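queue> pop job 88
queue> type: inverse folding (structure -> sequence)
queue> payload:
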């Protein structure tokens, strides 16, 4: 099954949650960055996540304002899902839910880079994928001033998930068509500013949908729930009481 982005939540904040429930068998990827190290990422909501299979922390070179922390885990029980972040200031984050990522041996490779970039000499990070259809997820953080961008390098196609040009956090992804090495690069108009970049490659599921036999059923229920949410208006307790008083007055 091909890897696909299901939903996304991002903001310049220290907390946030998905609009819809996450589904068992999907994968949640969380990335946050800011001034000072994000010391903890705490899940909120009714869903249950499995063992965290990625937890990377990157400290910038020559700066205290381009720290990155990224982690991911598979959803084991469907439900609402959010996160709170502590440590550091000026935090920006992205939470992404993906379907189709393998349920075991999920992470193919990780990479990161830090330093001082310019428009002619970018900071780069690379990941190696051993099978086709892998997801390459990338997060970048800038020190201050002018925002940079992820460059298309060696087959890495820019797909913007989130960009905050006021505080300079960026996330992107691509689904690669073949095994190989893929790169992201940070560019900056001011070469004195420190930057950080992290990339993670995730393998696709094989022989089933995210390794979960109930996956398609759960996806259908989620779609039905979203449709019903827009069609049905469930009265509140006060409205029910008011109806009763008027009906039997």
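queue> result:
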């Amino acid at each position: 099954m091909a890897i696909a982005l299901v939903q996304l939540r991002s903001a310049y904040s220290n907390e946030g949650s998905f609009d819809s429930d996450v589904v068992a068998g999907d994968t949640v990827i969380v990335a946050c960055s800011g001034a000072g190290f994000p010391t903890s990422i705490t899940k909120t909501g009714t869903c249950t996540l499995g063992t965290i299979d990625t937890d990377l922390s990157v400290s910038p070179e020559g700066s205290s304002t381009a720290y990155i922390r990224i982690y991911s885990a598979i959803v084991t029980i469907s439900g609402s899902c959010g996160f709170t972040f502590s440590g550091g200031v000026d935090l920006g984050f992205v939470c992404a839910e993906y379907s189709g990522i393998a349920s075991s041996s999920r992470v193919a490779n990780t990479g990161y880079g830090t330093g001082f970039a310019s428009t002619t000499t970018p900071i780069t990070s690379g990941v190696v994928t051993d099978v086709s259809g892998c997801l390459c997820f990338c997060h970048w953080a800038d020190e201050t001033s002018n925002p940079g961008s992820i460059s298309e390098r060696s087959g890495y196609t820019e797909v913007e998930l989130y960009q905050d040009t006021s505080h300079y956090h960026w996330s992107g992804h691509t689904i690669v068509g073949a095994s190989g090495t893929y790169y992201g690069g940070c560019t900056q108009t001011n070469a004195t500013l420190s930057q950080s970049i992290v990339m993670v490659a995730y393998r696709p599921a094989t022989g089933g949908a995210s390794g979960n036999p109930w996956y398609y059923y759960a996806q259908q229920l989620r779609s039905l729930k979203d449709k019903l949410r827009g069609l049905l208006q469930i009265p509140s307790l006060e409205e029910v009481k008011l109806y009763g008083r008027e009906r039997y007055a």
